[in-house]
Every structure is written in C-alpha cells, then in structure tokens.
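Slide 14.
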Amino acid sequence: MKATKKVKPFDAVKMMRDIRNKISSDTQNMTLDELKAYIKQQLVENGAKLVGQ
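Slide 15: predicted structure.
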C-alpha cells in the first residue's frame, strides 16, 4: 500500500520554525539590554502585551 501525502493549506509548524529562525538571526549577537529593547519594540509594533499584563 502506498502512503499518500496531504497538501496542507496552512502549515503551522513551518510558520513557527520560520518565525523562530528570523528571531534567532535578528538577536544572535545582542546583549541582554539589547534583547530587552528588541522585545519591547516588537511588543509595541505588534500591539501585544507581556503575559500577565
């Protein structure tokens, strides 16, 4: 019996890996203070809040 491969309209795992790779490449040489500033900037740009706020 031959296995069939489904074509997904949306691949959440691929999206998560792409986002993680972009963040890793953006932050790989940052100091802790630079990383904190990066996170704050991303939260403001995306209109998000820290968990618990």
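Speaker note: The radius of gyration is 17 Å.
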